[in-house]
Write a structure and sequence with these properties.
The chain has eleven helices and ten strands. By secondary structure, the chain is an alpha/beta fold. It has two domains: 128 residues, D-Maltodextrin-Binding Protein, domain 2 (3-Layer(aba) Sandwich); 93 residues, 3-Layer(aba) Sandwich (D-Maltodextrin-Binding Protein, domain 2), CATH 3.40.190.10. Keywords: Signal.
Length: 270
């Protein structure tokens, strides 16, 4: 067998053009290649492959020209573990905590909290108006936790025998519509789809009687095991563009009422 010997310089000229297309194809927004997305079941954010989290992640990936290899849902804790270990690239609807910031890049895209739901006929314009009623009946779901101020109020109402306990979200909303309770606390991700499904949006007023209550930030989560800081920042900046150009609002509006979208986008992402 005769071996073909080429001068080193000529060999380099032959190899570099062949390798260049591979280098050129690397995408700085997804340097590890096609993405694996880890969701968890959370109201209209994600359920059975659909929700605003799905639409958001797919739109970001489309804009950044990053193909998606796989999408799956897990229990909440397992989804976080997949991201921590680098077995998944991206998650969504993730709360920011110091522990999670250790292994995730977290970029908020909505801010929400429990609102006060009142029957449409209620004349209460403030929390004080509600509490003045001697016949007040306030509904709450067994075992559910709210903000500290809201939970203190419910504890006081329980001592006054003005608290009515519901077994589930469905139970609570039906009691509200049937006049068995005069008020309730609930989150838009829960009450919006329920009232829409039961064609009851026009029967309920949504009020913010706890303006100082802590909001919960839902964030897109990028695994630090998969994204370097510069790559993650590309996603962050694209998310901000979606907020500014109205795409984020349009996605949320597919699943939530105009009032709820106004509330959860009230705090700017800038």
């Amino acid at each position: 067998m005769t071996m073909l010997k080429l001068p080193l310089g000529r060999l380099a000229r032959l190899l570099i053009p062949a390798l260049f297309p591979l280098v050129a194809q690397a995408n700085p927004a997804c340097p590890q290649g096609p993405l694996v997305i880890a969701y968890y079941d959370f109201g209209v954010a994600y359920h059975q492959g659909k929700g605003y989290d799905v639409d958001l992640v797919r739109e970001l990936a489309r804009r950044l020209d990053c193909p998606i290899r796989a999408e799956a849902d897990y229990p909440r804790i397992r989804a976080l573990k997949q991201l921590e270990l680098g077995l998944a690239d991206i998650g969504a609807s993730t709360l920011i905590t110091p522990e999670r910031q250790r292994y995730l890049w977290l970029y908020p895209y909505n801010h929400s909290k429990n609102m006060v739901l009142l029957p449409r006929g209620s004349r209460a314009d403030s929390l004080d108006d509600l509490l003045k009623s001697p016949a007040l009946r306030w509904g709450a779901i067994r075992g559910y936790r709210h903000s500290p101020a809201q939970d203190r109020l419910l504890s006081e109402l329980a001592q006054q025998r003005k608290l009515v306990i519901a077994e589930s979200e469905d139970d609570l909303y039906r009691m509200l519509l049937n006049g068995l309770v005069d008020a309730a606390l609930a989150h838009p991700i829960s009450y919006d789809p329920w009232f829409r499904a039961h064609r009851a949006e026009q029967l309920i007023n949504v009020r913010d009687f706890f303006p100082d209550a802590e909001t919960i930030a839902g964030s897109i989560a990028l695994s630090k095991a998969r994204f370097a800081p510069a790559a993650a920042e590309l996603w962050h900046q694209e998310l901000r563009k979606m907020y500014r150009d109205g795409t984020l609002r349009a996605i949320l509006r597919r699943y939530l009422s105009e009032t709820s979208v106004d509330q959860i986008l009230k705090q700017a992402l800038e």
